[in-house]
Write a structure and sequence with these properties.
By secondary structure, the chain is of the alpha+beta class. It has ten helices and 17 strands. Helices cover about 35% and strands about 20% of the residues.
């Protein structure tokens, strides 16, 4: 998979007249080489992938991660640097860029300290952005990536079922997060052992659980805390960060109630949210624009008297957010092999409902890769 990504990337570099590309986004480094680390710039240690149009690719990475790089990185050469020794990661760049007339980088994803070094070596008129090339390339997934998407869906389904089961009167939110993490990790481990020869890939979930209950329900990205849930309250579970299988991400959301619906006005808003997702899915297919899917979703929400909504969805893959987005102004034509998180939603002053799933665009429509009931009577969890 990674070798084919690199070959295609170099073809696109040649078509754009790019001599050398500097890749610093973690997800793009992984997409092209299979290499990832967890320390990177958060610990002040740049990792830089240098891809010449011709010749060996070069991975510049901290010496602490050299053994991991040797094990996983599909590159021509690895240059390890150590803290405080010589000019650290800067030593490789002059040689790597020598003679190149057009150099492309990721302006929004390059650490400022690396960008300052590049600017000292390369005239501004010789720099361009590689971001549009990679973004377009990553839109349509390979068969290997689609297999990952389907397995990520199985992991997500296990997490949603466990989260729903953990909801209850008198239960603190963090207990739900613990149940979700355990279920997701166990399902991921099961899938890794059955389908992948990759003992280094961790099955553990590693993202704070997005969860809002009761009076916090309008806090869209609230994290699970110590709040005690009560019967009749709504509970929102979102797995847009935790659904991360073999580094492939999906979106998945549900709104539940515990035992029954204390405030019956919430039910009406929820039904509109479900209807808005249904309208989006009615428009979701190859050959249409991304913004047309959002328009179908927004029409239902605004037609019911609610405010203009946030984007209907986004493409996912090895990043949480990829191109295109299902939003006004995005005129990208949808193609088979794209993967989208597609939401339905309603927001009021005191309540918000959201239902979301992930889908693969097929030749004649879409394939759902997440699944959990969403009919009103099906989202009332046992108290």
């Amino acid at each position: 998979m990674f070798e084919s990504h690199m070959r295609e990337f170099r073809k696109r570099m040649a078509a754009e007249g790019i001599d050398v590309a500097l890749i610093t986004d973690d997800d793009n480094v992984y997409y092209l080489t299979g290499y990832y680390d967890y320390l990177h710039m958060e610990f002040g240690r740049p990792t830089i992938l240098v891809v010449p149009r011709d010749g060996d690719s070069l991975l510049v990475t901290p010496a602490l991660d050299l053994n991991a790089a040797k094990s996983s990185a599909r590159v021509g050469r690895i240059a390890a640097w150590n803290d405080g020794m010589g000019d650290e990661w800067r030593e490789e760049l002059p040689r790597a860029l020598k003679g190149a007339r057009r150099i492309a980088l990721e302006p929004d994803r390059m650490p400022p300290v690396v960008r300052a070094c590049v600017d000292s070596l390369v005239a501004e008129e010789n720099l361009s952005s590689i971001t549009p090339v990679l973004a377009e390339m990553r839109m349509v997934k390979s068969e290997e990536e689609l297999r990952l998407a389907r397995h990520a869906g199985q992991m997500a389904n296990a997490m949603m079922a466990a989260g729903r089961e953990a909801l209850g009167d008198g239960v603190p939110e963090y207990e739900v997060a613990l149940a979700v993490s355990q279920a997701g990790t166990r399902k991921a481990a099961e899938l890794l052992l059955a389908h992948y020869d990759d003992a280094d890939m961790s099955p553990n979930t590693h993202f704070l659980q997005i969860m809002a209950t009761g009076e916090t329900i309008t806090k869209t990205h609230h994290r699970a805390g110590t709040r005690i849930m009560r019967r009749g309250e709504p509970a929102f579970l979102c797995f847009c960060g935790t659904t991360n299988f073999h580094r492939f991400k999906l979106g998945f959301d549900r709104t539940f109630w515990i035992g029954d619906i204390a405030d019956k006005s919430q039910a009406a808003a929820y039904e509109v949210a479900v209807a808005s997702q249904k309208a989006a899915l009615g428009a979701l297919r190859p050959g249409v624009t991304a913004e047309s899917v959002h328009a179908a979703y927004a029409e239902v929400i605004q037609g019911a008297g609610y405010e203009y909504p946030f984007r209907c969805g986004r493409a996912t893959g090895f990043s949480f957010l990829e191109k295109p987005q299902l939003v006004t102004g995005d005129k990208t034509i949808l193609q088979p092999g794209m993967v989208f998180a597609v939401d339905g939603s309603v927001t009021t002053e005191t309540f918000r409902a959201q239902v979301g799933d992930s889908f693969i665009i097929t030749e004649d429509g879409w394939e759902s890769v997440t699944a959990h009931p969403k009919r009103l009577d099906e989202v009332i969890a046992a108290a």
